[in-house]
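note to self: the first set is below, dont mix up w the second
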Amino acid sequence: MKALYLLLSFIMISDTLVSQCLDDDWHNTSIQNSWLSCTSSFNPVSQLGNSHWIQFEFDEVKAIEGLKIWNMNHPNLLTAGIRTLRIDASMDGIQWMAVDTLDLEEGRSDKSYTGQAIDDFNSFEARHVVFTALSTFGNACAGLTEVRFNLGKVSTSTGHEYLATKVSIAPNPTDQFISIIFSDTELSVRSIEIFDVLGQQLIHQQIEQTSVDGILRLDSSSLPDGHYTLRLTTEEGLISKKIVVAHP
């Protein structure tokens, strides 16, 4: 399948990055066309708190199969380039999933700098993507010059909806335990997660396989009253279900 590349503008408060290509993958070193964050702010991925981050938003769900990143290449700001980059993804901009953590190369200030291709990472599907700078090359600021996404084939929404029909929740509302009932006992579940309405992960449980009778039980007694999203990660795809917790 021929790769499709998408060049996106950076979204970080009011900062915008535009392409600054000179010849194919060559770049100039103008700081005006780069993203630079010197003041941390609250990350959309709430558990990361105040940090230097960049958010991308696609017009629809995309399959991300590879990246090409140009680190900060201004001659006076090479140390502001991101050394360790965390990637988080979301379908709705509320519930986030950690995708991967990457080690980036330091940028170069010569115009023939052609960036770093990254193909060996966890591919994923998302509409929203957040890059967070976990470390730089020594500068208190963090910055990048450009990012390109290698886009592949996206699973159809019909497929995800069909998966959801294989799972039911009982009781719902619940107070002590949630029974996750599988109509297809061959469905292979890897993990169970519960998120609150702010997208914070409250429960995460790894699963080796479903039980013999096709039912998994999850203790929900520690959750306060409210509305939550239960997410199952399976080999066939993600399944999300809305649940309500109401204690007597």
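second set (the one i keep forgetting abt)
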Amino acid sequence: MNDLADILRRETDRELPRAVARMSDIARTRFGAAVDGVLFYGSCRRQDDPDGLYDLYVLLADYRSLPTLEAWLARILPPNVYYLEYGNGSARRRAKCTVISLRDFERGTSRLWFHSYLWGRFCQPVSLAYARDDRIEQRILGCLANAARTFLSRTAGLAPAQPTTADLWSTGLRASYAAELRNEAPNRADHLFDSHAHQLDAVTRAAGLAELRAQPDGVRWTVELSATARRITRWSWAVRTIQGKLLSLARIFKAWYTFDGGLDYIVWKLARHSDREIVIPDRVRRQPWLYLWGFFWRLYREGVFR
């Protein structure tokens, strides 16, 4: 644990873009004294894009700082998603701010959560933009360590019998992407690994999983799972994929309520990932609860997301 914690601490301590530090302050102002920590992750972390949408995760001590209905939604189906921005014109910066309690974050990055929504995200490199104190920082680092272990243990059975570290992560990330309504390029998982190859290799070696044994060449691994365990892994991911599509759809509709301009954001993101122009029909804007289902079903059938 100490080796893995040290590896993660060095990565989370990376210098933040100025816009992220500012967004972290804005998030702390918006959600008040309940904020325990703020994490920065995603594509803008890998390559800073001032015109992109920064991804922040705000960890709360509890949901009582949220308005009543929003707190209820967060408890029923965490997390909630909000929109933050500052500046004007070409200096405008935008962020998607995802809010979850630290307790739910701990559960969601551990083996207590069946679906990969949280441990599939936070096994990847992230930055810690804010922690209330050293104790909270240690809890967050523990979550990140658990996310990596959970991810590797639940995806190892999908990899070839003697995979490289790249095989382990690319195979697992593709499974995680497929378990949500996302439209990722076929090489997205490979690109993510290549961007953090040294870090993810170090994490894999420090995780100390019984399922993975390093081979003498230092390049490949032996996946020590029986044929039955591999079948269970594949069945589990088939269930996760069905479960995840339904949960993603529910979160989309929840984000429509909590996210300012949520429908436009969702369509913008789908258009960006699919490289297609998507027009929101007037009737969907006027009566979203009636027509949104059909709109998204049409996009799904057209292959805009899977």
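remember for set 2: The first helix runs from residue 2 to 12.
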